[in-house]
Amino acid sequence: MKFISELGGILGLFIGFSFVTIFELAELLIEICFIFFGNYHQKSSEQNERNDEISFEEEIKRLKNELNDMKKNQNEANSKIELLLKSKSKKKKNLSNIVLQMNKL
Q: Which of 44, 24, 42 is nearest to 34 (CA)?
C-alpha cells in the first residue's frame, strides 16, 4: 500500500511538472509571437506614417488648389455683382429721369 501511495505522489508531482512545463512553453510561444508581430507592426506603422506624411502633403496641395479655385470663383462673382449694381444704378437713374420729366409735365 505504501508503494502505491508513493507512486501516486510521484506521479502527481510529475504530472504537475508537465502542466507547468506546457504552460511555460505556451507562454514562451506567445511572447515570441508578440515579439515577431510587434516588430512587424512597428515596421508597418513606420511605413504608414510615411504614407500619412505623403497623403498629408497631397491633401495640402489639393486644399490649396481648391482654395485658389474658390478665390477665382469669388472674383468672378464679385465682378458679376459689380456689373449688376452698375446696371441697377443706371436703371435707377433712368427711372429718376423719367419721374423728373413726368413732374415737369
A: 42
